Amino acid sequence: MTLQLVTPAPAAEPTGTRRRLSAVWASLAAGAAGPILLVAFPPYNWWWAVPVGVALLAVATHRQRPRTGAVLGAVTGLALFVPLLSFTGLQVGWWPWLLLAAVQAGFVALLGAATAGTSVLVDRAGWYWPLVSGLLWVAQEALRSRVPFGGFPWGRLAFAQADAPAVRLAAFGGAPLVTFTVAAAGGLLAMALWHLTAGQTDPVRRRIPRAAVAATAAAAVMALGAAVPPPKAPGRDVVVAVVQGNVPRMGLDFNAQRRAVLDNHVAATLQLADAVRAGRQPRPELVIWPENSSDIDPLLKPDAAARIDDAVAAVGVPILVGAVLQGPGPGKVRNAGLVWTPDTGPGQTYVKRHPVPFAEYVPMRSVVRRITTLVDRVRADFIAGDRPGVLTLAGTTIGDVICFEVAYDDLVRDTVTGGAQLLAVQTNNATFNYAEATQQLAMVRLRAVEHGRPALMASTVGVSAFVDPDATVHQATAMNTQAVIVRTLRLDTGRTLATRLGTTVEWILVAAALAALTTAGLLRRRTKAASSEPMTRPAEHAFRTDPAQEQP
Q: Would residue 318 be called left, alpha or beta, if left means φ above 0 and alpha means ψ between -120 and 50 degrees?
């Protein structure tokens, strides 16, 4: 019997028409992924759209070259971030908004390239879809949250899940674990889409059940958080008031009306004191004013200090004032939370640790001025504080973070490990809109779950609200109104697993993502090398007998 080597026929190359159609479908899927991800965020709150958007990008980039994956990822990123960050252009114009959106889209382009590069893993084992999707999304968000200039975490998948069962997983691994979970669900949906649409040899009667199983698994993953019991705060009760004083008019020039803004917050606090005396409101133990409630430095201006003294004396309890403090040094200011008590006046101070680049300070000011004179609107650079916002008001330790700081994991966690029993987010939304305010509130809700703490958001113009440790919102205010809300909160001093672990979960997931990328690269090189070897080893080829030469 003689054996004759038969080389397996190579797969037929797709025709030019088929390649063009494939490119069109990939582009459409990547373009649709961005708007679908967008509507998962407030004010739309279609949180279940996240895995759909993740799946569309995964399928679009699958089996593409990394550079093609990068282009498709950029398409998704622009379709997401241009509308999501539109609030940043309301006062400063279109090009800073589009530049910021383009920078953020660049990270999604890297994600697209990485997803395309790891296709070899998925091809070898289809169940890698959810793992690869979850790991790469976490890695992309980890990078985007740190660079450049300290990063910009707005638009993380976890921040779209405040109304979803998955938000409860934040108590175990923070925002990174929530992102991993919902992106993994997207990977399962990608498996389902692939079974339904890919040109497979399996008949439809087999592909449809497999797709149904993958889709069902995706729904189960999204519902995992429902199995987490809601937290039970064992601490004492405290009555807290939030004052939303409002501003005379929206826009950047609210700063030109600094005295009117301070007077509004004083007047609203005096009304609260009247309501307490009349029995219409319970007596608060502490009062929170928002960021920029006193842009006149009360430590230097006696008239501003006198107005705050009037408010504190009327209500009879400490007030956390959002103040802009001058110095240290010429041309420098600080964005601060300042504790003002009836007995001693100003005391403990938290200085914002993460001023916003190009909004509160200008990096490379002389270089940027050659490009645009908009930098001159930032007349004085805000300097960063160096201590967590752990402040004590009337025996209650609060964790103070200011405005966009709520998006940064470590800035919130540091207050809880420092002893905070209550999270307070002071913010000023006068230069933004309702979408930005509700997106920020969604972050507050996730932080409350993550650290097992009651939380609140105090805004100059809205939205202000209280949040329970299970993410439930109470007494949310309307935009552009003056309002005072009062609520009894149950404090807590325990620590969730997420608080204890800090960034450990995130770095484990990032390390796994890097391992997946490395493994995929090795497999691609091995496959390329094997395809170029001469076919001489019998064990690597198919054989058949030649009937004409077969011996009896």
A: beta
Query: What is the widest separation between alpha-carbon atoms in the chain?
Result: 115
The residue length of the chain stands at: 552
Beta-sheet strand order (sheet of 422-427): 390-393, 396-402, 422-427, 455-459, 465-467, 473-474
- Taking the model in full, what pTM does it have? 0.90
Nearest to 62 by CA among 169, 162, 186: 186
Tell me which amino acid residue 343 is.
D
Q: Strand (E) positions, 245-299?
A: 286-288
How would you classify the pairing of strands 286-288 and 3-6?
unpaired
Residue 233, pLDDT > 80, answer: no
- Whether a cis peptide bond, with omega within 30° of 0, leads into 148 is yes
Give the rounded distance of the alpha carbon of 71 from its chain centre: 23
Dist. CA 277–CA 286, nearest whole Å:
16
pLDDT at 534: 58
Q: With residue 338 as reference, give the H or E element that holds it.
A: strand 332-341
DSSP 15: P
Residue type, 431: T
Q: CA 109, 111, 101, 164: dihedral to nearest 10 degrees?
A: 150
With beta carbons less than 8 A apart as the criterion, state whether 424 and 399 touch. yes
Angle of CA points 114, 436, 326, to nearest 5°: 105
One-letter amino acid for residue 126 of the chain: G
* Alpha-carbon Rg for the chain in angstroms: 28
Residue 201 token pair: 């040899």
372 φ, ψ (degrees, to nearest 5): -150, 145
Count of beta carbons in the 10 Å neighbourhood of residue 261: 26
Whole-number Cα distances in Å, 474 to 329, 451, 458, 469:
42, 18, 13, 12
**For the domain with range 237-495, which CATH number is right: 1.50.10.10, 3.60.110.10, 3.90.1150.10, 3.30.70.270?**
3.60.110.10
Packing angle of the helix pair 504-532, 170-197 (nearest 10 deg)? 30
**Active-site residue numbers?**
291, 352, 403
Handedness of CA 270, 272, 275, 276 (dihedral sign): negative
Residues 6+ apart with CB under 8 A from 293: 243, 245, 261, 262, 265, 321, 322, 323, 460
CA-to-CA distance for 230 and 215, rounded, in angstroms? Answer: 27
111 SS3 class: helix
* Structural domain spans, the chain: 3-9+16-230+516-531, 237-495
**Bridge partners, residue 333, by sequence:** 326, 382
Model confidence pLDDT, tens digit, residues 55-73: 999 999 998 999 999 999 9
pLDDT tens track for 300-329:
999 999 999 999 999 999 999 999 999 998
**Cross-strand bridge partners of residue 325:** 334
